[in-house]
Amino acid sequence: MKSQKILNDPVYGFITIPSELIFAIIDHPYFQRLRRIRQLGLTDFVYPGALHTRFHHALGAMHLMSITLDNLRIKGTEISDEEYEAALIAILLHDIGHGPFSHALEYSLLAGIPHEELSLMTIELLNQEFSGKLDLALRIFKNQYERKFLNQLVSSQLDIDRLDYLQRDCFFTGVSEGTIGADRIIKMMAVKDGQLVIEEKGIYSIENFLSARRLMYWQVYLHKTTVSAEKMLINLIQRAKMLAQSGEKFFVTEEFEFFMKNQVTLSDFKNRKELLEKFLQLDDFDIWGAIKMWKTAEDYVLRNISHMFLTRKLYKINLVNEAFSPKDLEKLRQETLKKLDVPEEDLHFFFSSGTVSNYGYLAKDRINILTKSGEVVDVAQAADLPNIKVMSKIVEKHYVCRVKKLISPL
To answer: For the segment 63-88, what is each residue's pLDDT rounded down to a tens digit?
Structure first.
């Protein structure tokens, strides 16, 4: 039977697909598309092994969810077979709305539409196709189901999503500082008054998890070379959209051309089903195919940035703790303008500045610890863990990135 399908995952070993419905969802073109979207976008420019996909991550998260639910059942939490399958589907589809290059193009190819909204609409679309069989999964995903711990396993500061991506990203990048001990965290999970809690003896595993996540942000997700590469890609897409909307024609796939020419809003997606279906045809290969063609484009901005991507000649970047003064920024800007000899109105494609931020723990979305006396307390208030209080502070870093020289002249 198809429902007995087993997949071999490099992180966990064998993963079983537990039902016909879940197999059918995995087999659906919308889900198969995740094979063509990298989990870490352009991070392989820094860590060559970071080539895993959203497909890998979604299956891994489903596997961890099944282990977690089995563990909660052993501890006496009643979970029906319907709830069990729905929770697996909710976590399996939590990233289904990601566009090409995951987060890098979330606010440039589309007009600031978060992937969570697109994931929700895609699950609703799949629910129609599967004749309402995803109803409960949708309620869990939207936090509209009365058993709140199921939604907390899908989306919270200690959700299954984070447990998988930290382990998986750690594995594929080789950054061992991201090791979190997910097995122990899952074993320490319990349900108290309908809420997800961690038993007190697991508190140091939580501290390690929060520290590891913070380290992974600075060493992997917000590594300065990744920031530089993502900024290049954003600038490239903005230039392409500008040209497309002014009537210029150049090689791109039909779906990519549509989203470059049209400013599609969230309400457009909600009101026109065909727009979401068109978006769900897009993946990393649409972008890479265009970049390969654009390296010989007439437009010098497209030509240069595309060529730089293909030869890994990335923007030079300075990432510092203190904000650049307006005077320093203007000096760097003028130096770049003089060196490149480009029209001033085009300089922003070759010179960018901004901030990136990271936090370890947000107290407003608390992680609850179940003490031995049966009391539930926020992990930040737990005894002798000053490190977590420190991690509650949002840390900002400031960057300037700029082209060193044009590869192809104007």
So the answer is: 999 999 999 999 999 999 999 999 99
What is the reported pLDDT for 112? 76
Q: What is the reported pLDDT for 3? A: 46
Residue 232 to residue 238: CA distance in whole angstroms: 10
292 vs 70: CA distance, rounded Å: 47
Quick check: 97 and 131 in contact, CB under 8 A?
no
Token pair in block for residue 390: 């420190």
Q: Which residues of the chain have pLDDT under 50?
A: 1-3
**Residue 24 CB partners (closer than 8 Å, separation 6+):** 130
pLDDT for position 1: 45
Q: How high is the pLDDT of residue 95?
A: 93
Would you say 86 and 140 are in contact if contact means Cβ atoms under 8 Å apart?
A: yes
Contact 57, 41 (CB under 8 A): no
Q: Which strands, in side-by-side order, build the sheet including 376-378? A: 189-192, 195-199, 368-370, 376-378
- Give the pLDDT confidence of 4-29 residue by residue, as tens digits: 789 999 999 999 999 999 999 999 99
Q: Return all residues near 174 (Cβ < 8 A) that are at least 6 apart.
A: 47, 49
Report the phi/psi class of residue 401: left, alpha or beta, with left for phi > 0 and alpha for psi in -120 to 50: beta
Beta carbons within 8 Å of 185's beta carbon, 6+ residues apart: 158, 163, 198, 202, 205, 206, 209
Closest C-alpha to 96, from 283, 274, 273: 283
- Please list the alpha-helical segments (H only) found in 217-355: 224-245, 254-261, 266-271, 273-279, 284-294, 300-310, 326-340
Instruction: Count Cα neighbours of 359 within 13 Å in the Cβ-side half-sphere.
Output: 10
3-state SS, residue 306:
helix
* Structure confidence at residue 410 (pLDDT): 65
Residue 185, both tokens: 């965290």
